[in-house]
TrEMBL record:
Signal peptide per UniProt: none
Subunit structure comment from the entry: Monomer.
InterPro entries xref list: NUDIX_hydrolase-like_dom_sf (IPR015797), NUDIX_hydrolase_dom (IPR000086), NudJ (IPR033713)
Protein family per UniProt: Belongs to the Nudix hydrolase family. NudJ subfamily.
One Pfam family matching this protein: NUDIX
Gene name in the database record: nudJ
Protein name (record): Phosphatase NudJ
Domain named Nudix hydrolase: residues: 7-140
Alphabetized PROSITE patterns for the sequence: NUDIX
Organism: Roseateles asaccharophilus
Domain of life: Bacteria
SUPFAM superfamilies named among the record's database cross-references: Nudix
Enzyme Commission identifier(s): 3.6.1.-
Length: 165
């Protein structure tokens, strides 16, 4: 790494949603083919992680998501030679509940469908996971990890940038 290069990880959010012993996943088209993921996506400019996870869950599942707890910060690095890409993801994972699917609302582009899987079913198809973080987040939820939502602080400067100088 050249001294002037700065490490720029990709900040994402993910929603872990359980009903009974089943977890809501999305089946999505990726450069590596059709993969399974938690409802997840990138934090956009001016957006708090909490706002991002609510938006991403709605876009990918067509269901309103209500965050209830913070699960943790997860990191993973991927080398994608086909795209000359070396990217590190920082995933902020939240757990919560969803309402019913909103009639007439389309799933986000690239999302083929949503499905509910048990932890065992999810573990049995690890080769189809978009990342190893998919299963880790669900395992942490199943183990009882819950942190307060205010563990993640978003300063107001996200929407109204501070002017220095």
């Amino acid at each position: 790494m050249v001294a002037t290069d700065r490490f720029r990880p990709s900040v994402t959010v993910a929603a872990v949603i359980a009903r009974g012993d089943r977890y809501l996943l999305v089946e999505e088209e990726t450069a590596e083919g059709l993969m399974l993921n938690n409802p997840a996506g990138h934090v956009e400019l001016g957006e708090s992680p909490l706002d991002a996870v609510v938006r991403e869950a709605l876009e990918e599942t067509a269901r309103p998501f209500v965050p209830e707890a913070f699960l943790g910060v997860y990191l993973a690095r991927f080398m994608r030679p086909a795209r000359s890409e070396d990217v590190t993801y920082v995933r902020l994972a939240f757990s919560g509940s969803v309402g019913e699917q909103i009639a007439g609302r389309a799933l986000d582009e690239g999302i083929h469908r949503t499905l509910w899987l048990t932890l065992d079913e999810l573990a049995a198809c690890a080769e189809r996971h978009r990342s190893p973080l998919v299963l880790q987040c669900v395992r942490d939820y199943a183990a009882g990890r819950r942190l307060p939502l205010d563990t993640v602080f978003a300063h107001g400067s996200l929407t109204t940038p501070l002017v220095k100088g």
